[in-house]
Amino acid sequence: MKKRSRGVRVVIVLLAGLLSAITLAVCVVAGVYLYFGPQLPDAGDIGQTQFNEPLRVYTADHKLIGEYGTERRKPVTYDEIPKQQVDAFVAAEDDRFWEHPGVDYQGLMRAVIHLVTTGRKTQGGSTITMQLARNLYLSDAKTYTRKIKEMILALRLESKLTKKQIMELYLNKIYLGERAYGIGAAAQVYYNKPLDKLDLAQRAMLAGLPKAPSAFNPIVNPTRAKQRRDYVLRRMHALGFIDDAAWKQARNAPITAGEGSDQKNPARYEARYIAEMVRQDMVARYGDKAYTGGYSVVTTIRSKRQREADHALRKDLLAYDARHGWHGPEKTLDSSTMKDSKAVQDALDDMTTRGGLVPAVVLSTDGQTVHLQTGQYGKVSIGASQIPWLHGNKAASSLVSRGDVVRLAYTGAKDKDKQWTLAEIPKVQGALVAMDPHTGGIEALVGGFDFGLSKFNRAVQARRQPGSSFKPFLYSAALANGFTAATIVNDAPVVYQGSGLDDSWRPQNYSGTIHGPTRLREGLVHSLNLVSIRVLRRVGIGTAIDYISKFGLPANQMPHNLSLALGSATFSPLQMATAYSVLANEGYQVKPYYISKITNGRGKVVFQAKPKVACDEVSNCPALTDTSGADDTSRLAPHVIKSDNAYIVGDMMRDVIKHGTGRGALKLGRNDLSGKTGTTNHQIDAWFSGFNANLVTVTWVGFDKLKPMGHAETGAHAALPMWTDFMGAALSGQPEAIPPKPDDIETVQINPQTGQRALNGGGIPEIFRKGHAPTVEQARHSGKHDSSNEVQQLF
């Protein structure tokens, strides 16, 4: 009886102790909640989060070319997330996510037991909901206090949101490395694909990142990343999310993260100059909200033409560089570094591909062969045919030696021995602008060799002398002031004297030769300076400037003297492209633009471009009636020069390509191209500007600091190859397009020596505005040519 009594007392004591422990636990929990609860968001506020979506810039065909903001984000809804992707994260991070109330007490107890038995903390017990709570509201400090707050917030989240809402928030908020927040952004960053295009191995790779985004980064550390990916796949298989066949196939899949990036593929370029123009425009519109408001900007850039422009410019500048002296290595690694292959690899990892040129370290030279180490492509060897500066029997050691850091250009050849060429970052610079002459939409723009090396946008910001590429505007002014394409102008020496005898100007043709009486057409075709000067003098400087400003060229950038005839004004390549558009579109002035549409983070269109279009009436402009649904005469571009004038100048410029300084473009095999070279004194600036009826392109080459580019580096030699490479690619497969011939243009046979009508048959054809062709009577009394005094007053 006494034993039973003692047993009852023991039970009572134990129950009392248990009750006390429970009471104590409840009190502790209540106390913890009362203490920490007021410090945390209320249930009504929790779950309300705003993603700082970056500014994204796209081409007209929706290829991403720029992203600005501290965080890369691309939010997706739960319904847009493949189930397999959700399963991968559940397997990797929280396999009881769908069952627990926000805190997994089983996992938490395992973590406590592990701590008690080993004395070490573990990451177990942190559910997806708790991770979300931490990401939304707490710091990353690993403390017991933070863990308590996580649990309280997790319970509040679960009381406020559904499991699907929590998963959606989590997968959009979680940091996955490479500045990517959320799986939408990560899919683009690592695989350049939308989320629904990833395979199982790639989804498992993303699911393995939250634990340690840097350590398991598949681009930086593919070995550790694969180990983590395979762990996720094992968990998915163990939980029944994937079958045996899918598991086996995925764990044998190669690491594909980073393929297509600039580091992996040196032939891929981005439109960073135009993207920067958009960024500046958006900041001017919206301030700092431009970086966080989720704005998407669609530009007028056409991705294929932009790539072609990048390629053409870089190829041209590298070709110029190969024609001139080797600059030497960028730097030389010391001997101790060269003895350690890992140190060499580390040094290469710190270098960046620039302008498509891959950094490499010289390991050794052998006669005319150089053996090199690259970061991404391993060891390569190049021979004499791949070293532009290795002439004759010179040894490779005369250019480079062990430890030198150099650059390699990728040619894309299938033959492994010929895919690399020794190169160097050129000191010369260039620019290219391509425009739609009917709307002013910029379809390609490159402002330099590499944006990372120089953010100065030469296509827009540079003001350079256009040289003879300015002459078509002067000749247009001449046609508007009584000249015809057959007017005779004397190409002969002349001296223009200023206020003193020592202040005289003796202009010359580039070739140094003179041609005597010359038709206006031939003066433009052969870019004769003396003809152009006499044309400007007869038209009048003020009259010419007033007329030429109709092309969109600012009058205050044109000198008020006769040097204007030789292109001594200063314009940007974009300004020149705008002006050439007037000649290409039958005389209409369009304004360049590059932003087509802006949408905000909610997908609402907040800006839609409505450019003025080169048309005589709305009925002839499908672009206007199709977009507005009604006639909109306010969007008709102003007609600034007569169509017949534009046509005749364009026709003369077609002869520049057929017979004159632009003959290098004949290799394109097209008859619809008009163009003009431009070269300034001492070959400081080289230009080529030209068009067909649908595309205007201007190219420029020169040094940022004014200095000669070298003998024979003219527009035809330095800038025309860039133009032909781009136009050849851009117009490939396109039918020929010459601006339509106006009704008031007539063709007359003329005497090529006098410019007068041919009386007895024969002669050559020339085009005139009706009423402006030479008459038979004039031909009978011809014989007098334009003459000018040997000394003229400079004005």
Automatic annotation (TrEMBL):
Membrane topology (UniProt): Single-pass type II membrane protein
Keywords, sorted A to Z: Antibiotic resistance, Carboxypeptidase, Cell inner membrane, Cell membrane, Cell shape, Cell wall biogenesis/degradation, Glycosyltransferase, Hydrolase, Membrane, Multifunctional enzyme, Peptidoglycan synthesis, Protease, Signal-anchor, Transferase, Transmembrane, Transmembrane helix
Associated pathway: Cell wall biogenesis; peptidoglycan biosynthesis; Glycan biosynthesis
EC number, as in UniProt: 2.4.99.28, 3.4.16.4
Segments traversing the membrane: 12-36
Ranges of residues in domain Glycosyl transferase family: 63-237
Biological processes, Gene Ontology terms: cell wall organization; peptidoglycan biosynthetic process; proteolysis; regulation of cell shape; response to antibiotic
One Pfam family of this chain: PCB_OB
Keyword Signal: no
Gene3D superfamilies found in the cross-reference section: Biosynthetic peptidoglycan transglycosylase-like, DD-peptidase/beta-lactamase superfamily
Penicillin-binding protein transpeptidase domain location: 430-683
Catalysed transformations (reactions): Preferential cleavage: (Ac)2-L-Lys-D-Ala-|-D-Ala. Also transpeptidation of peptidyl-alanyl moieties that are N-acyl substituents of D-alanine; [GlcNAc-(1->4)-Mur2Ac(oyl-L-Ala-gamma-D-Glu-L-Lys-D-Ala-D-Ala)](n)-di-trans,octa-cis-undecaprenyl diphosphate + beta-D-GlcNAc-(1->4)-Mur2Ac(oyl-L-Ala-gamma-D-Glu-L-Lys-D-Ala-D-Ala)-di-trans,octa-cis-undecaprenyl diphosphate = [GlcNAc-(1->4)-Mur2Ac(oyl-L-Ala-gamma-D-Glu-L-Lys-D-Ala-D-Ala)](n+1)-di-trans,octa-cis-undecaprenyl diphosphate + di-trans,octa-cis-undecaprenyl diphosphate + H(+)
Record localization: Cell inner membrane
Database matches in InterPro entries: Beta-lactam/transpept-like (IPR012338), Glyco_trans_51 (IPR001264), Glycosyltr_51/Transpeptidase (IPR050396), Lysozyme-like_dom_sf (IPR023346), PBP_transglycosylase (IPR036950), PCB_OB (IPR031376), PCN-bd_Tpept (IPR001460)
Signal peptide interval: none
SUPFAM superfamilies the record matches: beta-lactamase/transpeptidase-like, Lysozyme-like
GO molecular function: penicillin binding; peptidoglycan glycosyltransferase activity; serine-type D-Ala-D-Ala carboxypeptidase activity
Cellular component per GO, a single term: outer membrane-bounded periplasmic space
Keyword Cell inner membrane: yes
Domain Penicillin-binding protein OB-like, residue spans: 326-428
Function: Cell wall formation. Synthesis of cross-linked peptidoglycan from the lipid intermediates. The enzyme has a penicillin-insensitive transglycosylase N-terminal domain (formation of linear glycan strands) and a penicillin-sensitive transpeptidase C-terminal domain (cross-linking of the peptide subunits).
Similarity comment: In the C-terminal section; belongs to the transpeptidase family.
Designated name of the protein: Penicillin-binding protein 1A
Natural source organism: Salinisphaera hydrothermalis (strain C41B8)
